[in-house]
Amino acid sequence: MSCTSSKWLLTIFASTAVLVSGADISMAQTTGVPGTPGATTTIDGNYLPPSPPPFGGEINLSAEQSKPYWPPKVVPPKGAPNVLLIMTDDAGYGISGTFGGVIPTPALDRIANAGLRYTQFHSTALCSPTRAALITGRNHHSVGFGVVTEQSTGFPGYDSIIGPENATVGEILKQNGYATSWFGKEHNTPSYQYTVAGPYDQWPVGMGFDYFYGFMGGETDQWTPYLFRNQTQIFPWLGKPDYNLITDMADEAIDHIRNLNAAAPDKPFFVYYVPGASHAPHQPKPEWIDKFKGKFDMGWNALRDQIFANQKRLGVIPANTALTPWPDDLPKWDTLSADEKRLFARQAEVFAAYVAYTDNEIGRVVQAVDDLGKLDNTLVIYIEGDNGTSAEGSTVGTPFDMAALQGINVPVEEQLKFYDVWGSSKTEPHMSVAWSWAFDTPFKWTKQIASHFGGTRQGMAMAWPNRIKDAGGLRTQFHHMIDIVPTILEATGIRAPVMVNGIAQRPIEGVSMAYTWDKANTNAPSARTTQYFEMFGNRAIYNNGWIASTTPPAPPWLLGLTKLPDVINGYQWELYNIAEDYSQANDLASKMPDKLREMQELFLVEASKYNVFPMDNSIVQRLLVPRPNNTAGRNVFTYTGTMSGLDPSGAPDILNKSYTITADVDVPQGGAEGMIATMGGRFGGYGLYLLKGKPVFLYNLLSLERQRWEGPAALSPGKHSIVFDFTYNGPGPGKGGTGILKVDGQEVANKKVEHTIPFLMTLGETFDVGMDTRTPVDDNDYQIPFRFNGKIGKLTYKLGPLQLTEEDQKIIQHALARGRD
């Protein structure tokens, strides 16, 4: 290289250095020597990520003549706490011992005694909507979660799309230097995006969480969960007879926190810990059930009185609180038969065990933080429940919650057959609505009911020993899930960004609760003055100590299967002054019509602002609405070879239609056995398989009955065509039909069935070809993985049109038409 060329290059390097040195980095706060590996910076945070820092060293022709420069590592403001955000599931205000319940919750006690208990904290009344509000700081309709993702429709408030304009608290903290992780229930990814085809932008790893360990949907079996690590399915229960997800999740979180500490002890963490209990199925370890034997023999009415007395004694309800009346359509305990009392007490024992077991495992996670010496500078927020206690178990409870979710009740005498295995891997149980109502003491109603506090009031405790000094204090300010994100941001000294990844952000709609931490502000006015509520048409509006609420036209345990009034004009309204009437016991609507009208008008204003319209009071019918998954518009599906773990959203849906399954197989010498195709498992689904060489099609109607088509003879070695053809007797969901099993064109079995699964075949199993995962459709026939030992040349599904009633079609057509508007 010539001397002239060298001088020219040096001139370019020099001019670059001048441009770099002139960059505006005035907002950054850098520690350490700039350019060294140990240098850090705390960013302004308005725009995430920040612009890449300029190179601050010198570049010449050789390394000896140059000066290296490392960009500073982004860290949160000095002293920013770790954050452990905990939330349980389907737990009303009267469940935990911390808030007057009879179920011991020592981990929640620990947080409350070290910090504060909040007695007017609220959810949205349903799972995914609450979780979307919690992680975004925005109202659930604002981020597309007016309902759970499985019921999403084509409206901005109901499409289950959070969107990049609504960055989660995980994304914000991550880009400000936190290690972020999520353990447990997810339920904020569109249900039609659960497959390996993605996209993954609304999975936890795409929403700002470095690490995810949990399940994607609304529930899962705790013994054989549908489980993911980041984006990969895992099967940890195989070979582990004592496995339970509640313990496994705590183990994973503890290991993760310890590993973070070993790798980067000074890096603060944000752990979002949401175990999914006590949502059905109620499946604690048996030693926990033993602890509650006989504890609920007094019945639900006496339980309610006991909880109410405890709440007054603890001061978590005002002294003048009235116990709302017992509903007329739920039986009183003393009217029950001996068998009913025995069964219902068992349901509550297992549920209580599940609550206590879950709290114990949460306590292990809290203790792990303490063991590392980090608890004093950790903001722990422990929310007991994402909504009120669930009424989805029907009035009599159920050993199989997928049946109850679809309006199918199991008689008491049939349920008693499962008494000794209630909560084990042989059941997926739920309890009677009457227990749910009692566990929501002192309020009316339950989960799904957004108009009343039985659906939305949650016990919550918050501790941060380095900052919150009023240990054991009570706070009565009115707050909501959307207020958690701004509280975390204020605690960490991190601002809500105006732009994230190039996308302008919707404003955070919550307000910080940090003002309540000072003892001087014990009785300060609520920073939240207004909050709307809406779920399935039931709605309410809170404003400065008043709340106006619609009267639910039908109880949630009827699942919207009864005739409902016009969602806008057909609802009655109630009015309460909750500053004086904590439990919504004294309806003032008839006495104060002007105040009620003022509140109704305010609801319209808030609902318009936050994407609540159009309102819809259909419930299970919305499960039938087509969604933009990878099966949309397809009626022929073809597979070859072996495949396992395909989410139902990407598999052929045989519900409420005629269908034909054709399998071309090659049987080896010595005969064949194994699964050809299956969806679901022990608690609902179907399987086409060879058993000792004989072709079998088995249909598992939610464990209530199993219908079987079986050929009389084993298949000979060589190629065969196996066909199962089903003609559906629609219209309407859950109707029966006729199934014909054929081998090489010859009919070998023909049977009519009276019923099929109406809305949901499974929530926690997958579609498999050539094997079976998780649980078998019939434990008496085979055990997993039941691999097919022949060859599957081609497997084809041909689906007929969905056969719905005229009313069902109206609901779907309405959703599709309005979604296009």
UniProtKB/TrEMBL annotation:
Gene3D superfamilies, per the entry: 3.30.1120.10, Alkaline Phosphatase, subunit A
Pfam families xrefs: Sulfatase
Keywords: Calcium, Hydrolase, Metal-binding, Signal
Signal peptide: 1-23
Sulfatase N-terminal domain segment(s): 81-494
One GO molecular-function entry: metal ion binding
Membership in a protein family: Belongs to the sulfatase family.
The protein, known as: Arylsulfatase
Annotated organism of origin: Microvirga alba
